Backbone:
């Protein structure tokens, strides 16, 4: 498959990029200008969550609650993971006093990619085939004092590889430990939805914002997977008050993953 960046020209819409690549259309969200479904009881009524599991900012310290398939299809918990009132998005929230995983000091309400049937952890190579995640997301709230939230990422076996990270009103694409690798905009307004995409192939990850190639990350590894949701980059040690009213929140209205080759 031709490299994605050769197809993207300035001003090309994300939908056009998707069509040009022959990727599946984004599922689970209404067309622009249209209302969502009349009723939805669960986030799985909004997004196809078949190939995902959920980590929540609840449970025991370093042992957060995880929800896998098939339970995920009929699961919601306010305010951490629920469908929006208009059924147009899934709302992810993580407060600074939330439970964290053993490998992080920050709380999350976040999806982790699984295999297509939802039974096993996904793990793919950047040097074998083409691996794509497209999503539409909006940052809705940031924690106090350290206003930083990650909304989508490619994760390797040991650490995140590249993410969309909002710091105040500056939206960055990260590269490993370089959290300010590429500035997308320094004027992001909370609640503004945008299209994001990661395309991994040939030892590189192309990262797109609203259909425009923003940066390319060099990365050769065979233990990668996608994540999406609200990964709040603050805790009670650096952000107050230390309670549930101090949180990061992300809304996702479209989410699609594909693997080929």
Residues:
């Amino acid at each position: 498959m031709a490299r994605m960046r050769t197809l993207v020209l300035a001003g090309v819409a994300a939908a056009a990029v998707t069509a040009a690549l022959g990727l599946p259309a984004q599922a689970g969200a209404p067309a622009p200008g249209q209302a969502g479904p009349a009723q939805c009881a669960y986030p799985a009524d909004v997004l196809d969550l078949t190939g995902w599991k959920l980590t929540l900012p609840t449970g025991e310290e370093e042992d957060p609650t995880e929800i896998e398939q098939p339970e995920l299809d009929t699961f919601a918990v306010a305010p951490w993971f629920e469908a929006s009132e208009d059924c147009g998005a899934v709302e992810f929230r993580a407060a600074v006093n939330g439970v964290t995983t053993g490998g992080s000091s920050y709380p999350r309400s976040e999806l982790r990619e699984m295999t297509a049937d939802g039974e096993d952890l996904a793990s793919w190579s950047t040097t074998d085939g083409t691996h794509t995640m497209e999503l539409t997301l909006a940052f809705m709230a940031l924690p106090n004092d350290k206003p930083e939230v990650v909304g989508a990422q490619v994760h390797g076996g040991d650490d995140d590889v590249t993410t969309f990270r909002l710091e105040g009103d500056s939206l960055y694409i990260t590269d490993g430990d370089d959290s300010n690798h590429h500035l997308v905009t320094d004027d992001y307004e909370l609640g503004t939805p945008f299209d994001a995409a990661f395309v991994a192939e040939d030892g590189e990850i192309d990262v797109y914002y609203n259909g425009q190639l923003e940066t390319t990350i060099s990365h050769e590894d065979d233990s990668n997977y996608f994540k999406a949701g609200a990964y709040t980059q603050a805790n009670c040690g650096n952000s107050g008050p230390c309670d549930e009213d101090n949180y990061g929140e992300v809304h996702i209205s479209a989410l699609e993953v594909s693997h080929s080759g």
In short: The CA atoms of residues 145 and 239 lie 5 Å apart. The first strand starts at residue 52 and ends at 60. The radius of gyration is 17 Å. The helical segments are 14-21.
